Amino acid sequence: MSLFHVMSVSASGLAAQRARAQSIVQNLANSETTRTPEGGPYRRKDVVFAPEAQISPFSSVFQAELGAPQTGVGVAGVVEDIRDPLLRYQPGHPDADAQGYVAYPNINPAEEMVDLMSASRGYQANVAALSAVKDMVAKSIDLLR
Fold this sequence. Notes:
With 145 residues, the protein is an alpha+beta fold.
């Protein structure tokens, strides 16, 4: 595995964690949204990761020699939460039903913040790996001088 390939794997991890963080922030921002264009309250969204082949022009020769394709991570899709919305009794609210209940998104801010911290840690780990590879490349260049 070449150092350039390791950089592309880390870059795929950075992109995946960024997408996850964006989804979490969107969930937090819409935690009180009772009406969407599709109708009903906002639905919590989760990002699903899947292995993804990493193709790097710099490491194609090494991949051919190793025989096994190298994989990183990619976003396979975004799924909506299927749990029922939370009902709050607010008879004066414009979105209240006949009984006076308003449907709110089933979003737990504490759970979302823990997920956001996890995404941040994953992002930091990929940055650290990328920095280590960059330092190795710099040291290799210094040795060749």
